[in-house]
Amino acid sequence: MPIVISIAFFVTGLTLDTSDISLHALQLKATLAAMISSLVFIPLLSWILASLLFPVEFIIGVCIIATAPVTVVSGTVMTAIGKGNIPLSIVICVLGNIIGIFTIPFSLKILIEGAGNVNLPVLKMLSNLVTTVLVPIVIGNLFQSLLKTYLSRYKKAFSIFQQSIVLLIIFNAFAGSETTIREAGSLLPLLFVFIFFLHSLILAMNYGISKFIRLDRPSTTAFTIHTSQKTLTVSYLVWNGYFANQYPLAMIPGIIYHLTQMVMDTFLAEKLKKLSLRQ
To answer: How far is CA 135 from CA 40, 120, 129, in A?
Structure first.
């Protein structure tokens, strides 16, 4: 599975348009605020709230998805639907994933150190994430100019492949946890409500931050949507490599968060689109 995920990130690098990133990276206040919100505020908020309601396994699961980088594809797609600032969305995506790969091991260690008997090999996790996620993206982006004539032809196939990876992740997470899922059944409705509330709170927080730093409407759309999203693929790599045996249910919060953000952010993007057309 990690090899397939590396191929998926190579495809991501091939299809990720970074041509305007240097210009829009100069939007320092938006970029800096997005990194702080995504990699500091969201993990802290998620950990505090989860610690009030759930046992160790779900706390760890919430922390795994909360410390993950932003999504690569869906955040930019939904920004486009909402008539948002796509170049800013790409900057948040690229920098969020580069920085996030380096912060995940340390953030997780800090957040879950006291939650359970977890011996987290920080440097090993960092090395694995760099080689599995970051290196394939960089290599894919380097090959982008050489394969440019073929990319548009296979764009749909690339999209289907990446969606299939998400479905495989969900299947693998549930396949080995059927018995324990039944045992934890009473907590699952609460977890769904919690994730819905958490993502709503994160969206509201990021919208408030965008207004506080006085972003324009398109940039507010990009900031609110993309900074609030988390990637399931990286979360799976972390869970499968370091938590799956001891905490088989720790992937469930990430799956629920992924499904929640896809539904909620689609509705939000459509609403923002309608508001932009009225202006």
So the answer is: 24, 22, 9
Cα 71 to the center of its chain, rounded Å? 4
Backbone angles phi and psi of 116, in degrees to 5: -165, 180
**H helix intervals, 113-231:** 122-129, 135-143, 148-151, 155-175, 178-183, 188-212, 217-228
Tokens (6 digits) for 102? 């380096």
d(CA 187, CA 30): 37
Tokens 């907590």 correspond to 187
Give the rounded percent of residues in the chain with a pLDDT score beyond 90: 37
Which two three-digit tokens encode residue 205?
């927080």
Distance CA 122, CA 250 (A): 18
pLDDT-flagged residues of the chain (< 70): 1-2, 4-5, 8, 11-26, 114-119, 144-185, 278-279
Residue-wise pLDDT for 61-85, tens only, equals: 999 999 999 987 788 888 988 989 9
Rounded Cα distance, 220 and 88, in Å: 10
Catalogue all structural domains in the chain, each as residue range(s) with its CATH number: 2-278 (1.20.1530.20)
Contacts of 45 (CB under 8 A, 6+ apart): 66, 198, 201, 202, 205
Q: What is the largest CA-CA distance in the chain?
A: 54
Task: Single out the residue of 162, 175, 185 nearest to residue 232, CA to CA.
Answer: 162
